[in-house]
Structure prediction request, 449 residues.
Amino acid sequence: MQTAMIGGGYVGLVSGACFAEFGTNVAIVETDPDRLAALREGRIPIYEPGLDKLVADNVAAGRLTFGDNIEQAVQGAEAIFIAVGTPTRRGDGHADLRYVYAATEQIAKCMKDYAVVVTKSTVPVGTGRQVSDLIRRVRPDLDFDVASNPEFLREGNAIGDFMRPDRVIIGTDTTKEGGAHRAMEIMRRLYRPLYLIEAPILFTSLETAELAKYAANSFLAMKVTFINEIADLCEKVGADVHDIARGIGLDNRIGRKFLHPGPGFGGSCFPKDTLALVHIAQNAGSPMRLIETTVDINDTRKTRMAHRIVAACGGSVAGLTIGVLGLTFKPETDDMRAASSIPILHHLAGAGATLRAFDPAGMEAAQPLLPEEVVYCHDALDAATGVDALVVLTEWNEFRALSPARLRELMKGDVIVDLRNVWEPKAMRDHGFQYESIGRPLIEGPVRK
Ligand code: UDX
Prediction:
C-alpha cells in the first residue's frame, strides 16, 4: 500500500515512520530545504527517543522516502495525509489554516486516481468538510474521500503512543451518499497491526473526530490545572498534593495520570488547543467557560511562579545569582514552545537576577527565547555552582539523581525552589536547604538567616 504524508514536521515524521513500520510505503513531502536535506542524510531534526532508528530502519527497508515533490508522492497513494503546521494566528487566536488549504489545493491538482485525503494536523471543527469542498472545486472530476485522523502523540513518547495507542479516532464523511466505505476500508488496512493488539479504533463523523482532539487535550489541560490549584490550596491548609493525587487518582473514574502539579502546562498542543477550543465554542455560540478559565489560570500561574521564586529569595532577587535546572516545557524533549521557563526567566532577569541555566536537550532552542544574559552551563552541577538559589523548572530524571550534599557544597546560598517536586522535602531540609516545592507541607527546616 502506498501513502503520502504532506509535512515532515513532528506529526508527519512520527506518523510516517510508524505507518512505514506497519508495512506501508510512505512518501514524506517536506518543502523546507534544510529540513529535507537533514532527513535525507538521516539526521532527525527533532528530539524524540527511538525515532532516528525507526526512520533509518524503514528508509533502509525502502518503505520510507523523503522528497519535496507533492505530485510524485501523491501518484499511486491510496491515502494522502495532511500533516502541516496549524500555528495560532496572531491577533485573534484562531488556528491558521493557510498551510492546510495550500497543501489541499496542491494535492487536488495532481491527484489522478481515487484516494482518501486525511487531515492529521489538529484542525478546527469543519475543516475536513472545507478540505472536501476545496478539492471538489479544484477538481470536480475527481473521485475521493476525506477523513480526519487526529494524533494523540505525546512528545518523548510518541512512538509508543502510535504503536500502542489507547485509541485511534477516524472521522469520515457520514453524510456522503452511499457512505464512505472505501475510505474506511483503506484506513482499516493502514491500521491493521493495531487490530491485532485490539486497540480500539473508533469510526466517527468528520466533525466528531475533529472536536474529539480538542476535547481530549483541553480535558487533560484542565486536569493539570485542577491539580495545580489543589496544590496551592494544600499549601494553605497543610495538606499534601501527592497524597491527594493518589487518593483521588485511584478512583478509576478520575484516573491517576496528569495529576502532577507544576509551574503550568506548556508545549505545542495544550496552550494552542485550549485557546482554539475557546474560540471554536465562542463562535458556535456555546462558550466553554471551564476552558476559558483553564487558559486564564494557566497564563497567570507562570508569573505567579516567578513571584514565588522572588519571595523564596527573601523578597528581591536583585544582585542574586539563580541556577535554573530544566528549560523545556517537559522532560524528554528539546521543545521550548510555551515553556514556563520563558516568562519565569524573563521576570527574574528583569528583577535583576543573574541566571545560570542547564537543560539536557533544550538549550539550543532556548537561547533565542530567553533573556540574553542567561549563562548556559555544561551540566546541572555547573548551573548550581556559586548560586544563591536553585530553581527546578522541568523534571528531567537526571535532576532527581543529583546528590543534595554535593549541591549544598557547590551552592553559595541555601534556597531551592522545586517547581516540579523532584526531591523529597525532608531530605532537602536535612541537608540544610531552605526547600520549597509545590503543594507539600512545610516541614520544620533550618531558620532563615
Ligand atoms: C499533549 C497530549 O498529551 C497529546 O496526547 C497530544 O497529542 C499533544 O499534546 P505533549 O504536549 O507532548 O502532549 O505533552 P504532555 O505530556 O501532555 O504535557 C503537556 C504539559 O502538561 C507539559 O507542560 C507538562 O509539563 C504538563 N503536565 C502534564 C503537568 O504539569 N502535570 C501533569 O501531570 C502532566
Q: What stands out?
A: The first strand starts at residue 2 and ends at 6.
